[in-house]
Design brief:
Layout (H helix, E strand, L loop, with lengths): L7 H11 L7 H10 L7 E3 L28 H9 L6 H5 L2 H8 L3 E2 L3 E5 L2 E10 L3 E8 L9 H4 E8 L2 E2 L13 E5 L5 E7 L12 E10 L6 E8 L6 E3 L3 E5 L2 E10 L4 E9 L9 H4 L2 E6 L4 E2 L1 E8 L5 E8 L8 E9 L19 E3 L5 E4 L3
Antiparallel strand pairs: 1-8, 2-4, 3-4, 4-5, 5-9, 6-7, 6-10, 8-9, 10-11, 12-14, 13-14, 14-15, 15-19, 16-17, 16-20, 18-19, 20-21, 20-22
Length: 372
């Protein structure tokens, strides 16, 4: 049995990955989240009429504080004046992929804005790489706005070319969710969502008009803002390996892989080959997958959509990770399970630092070539 303890950011990233869409009771997800809740926990919007508990995840990067003293050199001062990070939501609050989108000119900055009842909301940055859509929003600060923007917004609805986003979903039972997480400060946030093309849904258009509708505390009518979205990523790698591994009653297939400068995404299908189901199997419901390149460099999980296709023994996952710094020669998937306490149902075993213990399943490990 191999047990592995990660640093705090990686550990919490895994916990966010645990609560994927599964046909289990909602209180299970609430219970797991509550055990490992952070101060900057992403806020999950669940679509109406969703028959399964769905979440999409996104982890916010740790925001550093820059202290400038009177002793700073003229050269450094001149350099700092040229750094765009000071005004970019994606540079300060986004994951590595969103930072790259901003740095490489793969995001757009529409500066769309709307004012209602004295409240001004603007969209300052948008990134879309054909895999996920990330929207940076900001409010114009006025007096007596101590609460975070993320906390005063609710019931967020999305429309693509004036049609509800779930017209692109596979079914009413497998609908498209969204997540909001903290921006660069209390007056900003990031909204993120992805299509379900690999689960039978329709892909989003390469270019579309996005309408964001949301309730804002203290404002009677929902606020609405329109913003153009365009996929600016031209160079990417798309693979359909369809490689399978078997361990015990688990049959795991890696169906698709896509690498862009903004996101690494994989689609997996897990089938239980005996008479068991995923419904009551907490160990399999919380299974995770690490991804490393040929040098052992790991990328971070940032989100995902999962669906129990038959309410029984088939589970589909679209998992999203940060990008590699450059296209690797190979990637390796390392599935793992979390270890639970024997006498306390639903409670993780913890290491000395207070993070969940995991065990890798080498029999399910998959390595595929990316470059010829």
């Amino acid at each position: 049995m191999s047990m592995h303890s990660k640093q705090k950011d990686k550990g919490m990233g895994r916990i966010e990955q645990l609560i994927r869409e599964t046909p289990v009771e909602v209180d299970l997800a609430d219970r797991v989240i509550s055990k490992y809740e952070r101060n900057e926990q992403p806020k999950i919007e669940k679509p109406e009429k969703n028959w399964h508990y769905k979440v999409a995840f996104a982890t916010a990067m740790l925001v550093g504080l820059l202290f400038i003293t009177p002793f700073i050199s003229p050269t450094m001062a001149a350099t700092l004046k040229q750094v765009p990070v000071l005004s970019s939501i994606f540079r300060l609050a986004g994951d590595f992929g969103l930072q790259m989108a901003d740095e490489k000119g793969l995001s757009t900055k529409p500066q769309a804005s709307v004012t209602q009842d004295g409240f001004t909301l603007s969209v300052s940055e948008v990134a879309y790489d054909g895999t996920r859509v990330s929207v940076g929003i900001e409010r114009h600060q006025t007096e007596n706005q101590a609460e975070k923007l993320q906390d005063i917004m609710s019931n967020i609805k999305l429309f693509i070319n004036n049609k509800p986003v779930n017209e692109y979903a596979p079914s009413e039972g497998n609908s498209i969710g969204l997540v909001t997480y903290p921006g660069k400060d209390s007056d900003s946030a990031i909204i993120e969502f992805a299509d379900l093309r690999n689960q039978g849904g329709k892909p989003f258009p390469e270019q579309f008009d996005l309408t964001i509708q949301a309730s804002v505390r203290g404002i009677e009518d929902p606020i609405e803002i329109d913003v153009p979205v365009k996929n600016k990523v031209e160079d990417y790698v798309s693979l359909a390996p369809n490689i399978s591994r078997q361990y015990d009653n688990i049959h795991l297939t890696l169906e698709k892989v896509k690498l862009t400068p903004v996101t690494t995404s994989i689609t997996t299908r897990m089938v239980l080959t005996d008479n068991s189901t995923f419904t009551d199997n907490l160990t399999l419901l919380t299974m995770g997958i690490e991804i490393i390149d040929e040098h052992g460099r790991e990328i971070e999980v940032i989100g995902g959509n999962g669906w129990n296709a038959t309410n029984g023994n088939i589970h589909l996952d679209d998992l999203r990770y940060t990008p590699f710094e450059s296209v690797p020669k190979t990637i390796t998937l390392k599935p793992y399970i979390h270890l639970f306490k024997e006498n306390e149902k639903g409670m993780f075993q913890l290491d000395k630092n207070g993070y969940p213990k995991i065990r890798y399943i080498p029999e399910l490990e998959i390595t595929i070539p990316v470059q010829p």
